[in-house]
Amino acid sequence: MTDKTTKIAGVMGWPISHSLSPRLHGYWIKKYGLDADYRAWPVKPEELGETFARLKHECAAEGGVFRGTNLTIPLKETAFEVVDILDPSAKRIGAVNTVVVGPDGRLTGRNTDGIGFTDSLAEHVEISELKGGTAVLLGAGGAARAVAVALTDLGMAKIIICNRSLSRAETLAGHIGETAEAAPWDARSNLLEAADLLVNCTSLGMTGQPPLEISLNALKKSAIVTDIVYVPLETELLSAAKSRGSIVVDGLGMLLHQAKAGFEAWFGVTPEVDVALRRHVLDGLKGK
Length: 288
Description:
Elements (H helix, E strand, L loop, with lengths): L6 E7 L7 H11 L4 E7 L5 H14 L3 E7 L6 H5 L2 E2 L1 H6 L4 E4 L5 E4 L2 H10 L11 E5 L3 H12 L4 E6 L2 H11 L3 E5 L12 E4 L23 E4 L8 H8 L3 E3 L2 H16 L7 H9 L5
Parallel strand pairs: 1-2, 1-3, 4-6, 7-8, 7-10, 8-9, 10-11, 11-12
Antiparallel strand pairs: 3-5, 5-6
């Protein structure tokens, strides 16, 4: 039984067992001595709206209060249609990764994936040098939407969106504007010749998912390669790119940085992303 003042938040997805978010937020909760709890809820897309309503009552019955949730695959675009209010960040991206329950019970959908991606990338490279370059983006789902917007804000001249469903890639390219173009999935390896940055925003290569089949032969060694997958931490894509001498950025940094704004909104504390946090979360990867 939780105390009546306990603030409860969590993460939803399908599946959700791979998520390190409970370990991440749990670390911050303990560090800052908060009366709070962070959980993992397996939720199918068609159950999302019903789950929000149910959790408000269930948390209250426990003596706590439901403050909101993170969203992962495949709920980020579903939530766009379910929440009551869309924050400008979610409107611009077209997907929601963070939901905040207001004092009136209404749900506000936000998106912190873009800033999470940028902050993570900035830990490894001088992001100002990407201005005017070309990015190849694999995927066209909710995370890809956020990354595409972030790449636009970084001033990249061209963003090539390559997805298994060409129509979804075309839709996202249209959403981004004149700097973006769609490409068929079969062309993914050949596209790399022009890439200054390669970003995998699909679930391919994640533990339990099919591998990402792509040849890096055309990729120049100066290109930066990043993968939003963090289970495993070093995906086959990153391993192959590293062996070629490319700078690689794993998906853990994006997870850590995107979590900051949600934690602050739910629990009233601005958390810090530091070496100790990364080490703690990495320990949670063992056995995944």
